[in-house]
Amino acid sequence: MLPVLARRPALTLALLVLAAAAVLAASLTLGSAGPRPAELWHGVLAGSDPLARALVLSLRLPRALTAFGAGALLALAGVAMQVLLRNPLADPYVLGLSGGAAVAALGAMLIGAGAFGVQAAAFAGALGATLTVFALAQGPGGWTPTRLLLTGVVIAAGTGALVSLLLAAGDPTVLRGMVFWLMGDLSWAGSPVWLLALVALAVPAGVVAARPLNVLARGDVQARLLGVAVTPLRGVLFVAASLLTAATVTSVGAIGFVGLVTPHLVRLALGSDHRRVVPAAALAGGTLVMLADLLARTLLAPRQLPVGALTALVGVPLFLVLMRRAQPAT
């Protein structure tokens, strides 16, 4: 199946678009409350039920589109990190970017910062975590993918400890809400416009930059020989991965493993050409988070599960499989 998809990228993208549309339709139709699907859509399309229209257009649609935008941005951040590290195990969550953004955003919340302050702090935290990983991983022979990955795992553990300390120091009355937010919570999702706008900017930019990304993924030496400005491109990828991660953390909290799962599966299906990888990863990541959010709302309805816990149930086993495959044969 995978070789067939690799030979027909247009078919794969079309299938991903259909999958996203199907999950979006299910997200608008299913929920813990409201009329049955047939009655719901009759009331929406005929305009005879204001409650049904409000339920679909004001509650479920913004939440589903926010989930799609967040998943797409996390997948694109994962693509950028995997190019930087030349390692399929790289991911904003595993490498501490999500943790750095969460620590900074949570700290800004605790001191009473406004929305812009929280977003700026999250961006600074994600960028700081990225720079810390690369600074600490610098060795006599330069960076190696294994050293970067291990350093990122340590930084992720450290940010997790800082999050625990900040939660312990916070207001107990809002502790549960903060915990759910940190595990990925879309119950308070606002307008998805700016997340979708970032996706609309990032996907074409990634497709335009596909050639230098393809070359950089093969190594710095080869990239320089082929005329790629390695240092500026690395800087752009640093900032892009941090910005995309910060945007998702401030909107929906820390949702893990999306940036690991989707780019890797897309590369298995379509190859490593970023003209295909970038749009396919965005579609797959958005669909995955939409599906996780739908399950979070419906599995134990009316109770809601944290979206990040559901994505981790998929991401952790896959991460372990990839780790095993990455080990050299003995």
Q: Major β-sheet, in short?
A: none
SSE sequence, one letter per element: HHHHHHHHHHHHHHH
What spatial form do the alpha-carbon principal axes imply?
globular
CATH superfamily: ABC transporter involved in vitamin B12 uptake, BtuC
| Poorly predicted runs of 5 or more residues | none
Task: Tell me the structural class.
Answer: mainly alpha
Query: How many helices in DSSP terms?
Result: 15
How far the N terminus sits from the C terminus, by CA atoms, comes to: 30 Å
Question: Which features characterize this protein?
Answer:
330 residues; mainly alpha; ABC transporter involved in vitamin B12 uptake, BtuC; globular
Secondary structure blueprint with pairings:
Layout: H1 2-7, H2 9-29, H3 37-46, H4 50-85, H5 97-110, H6 115-136, H7 145-169, H8 175-182, H9 193-208, H10 210-216, H11 220-225, H12 230-252, H13 258-270, H14 274-298, H15 307-326
Task: Write a concise synopsis of the structure shown.
By secondary structure, this protein is mostly helical. The chain is 76% helix and 0% strand. Helix 3 (37-46) packs across helix 4, helix 4 crosses helix 13 (258-270) and helix 13 crosses helix 14 (274-298).
Explain this structure.
It is a single chain. The chain is mostly helical and 330 residues long. It has a single domain, classed as ABC transporter involved in vitamin B12 uptake, BtuC, CATH 1.10.3470. The chain has helices at 2-7, 9-29, 37-46, 50-85, 97-110, 115-136, 145-169, 175-182, 193-208, 210-216, 220-225, 230-252, 258-270, 274-298, 307-326. The chain is globular, with a radius of gyration of 20 Å. The relative contact order is 0.17.
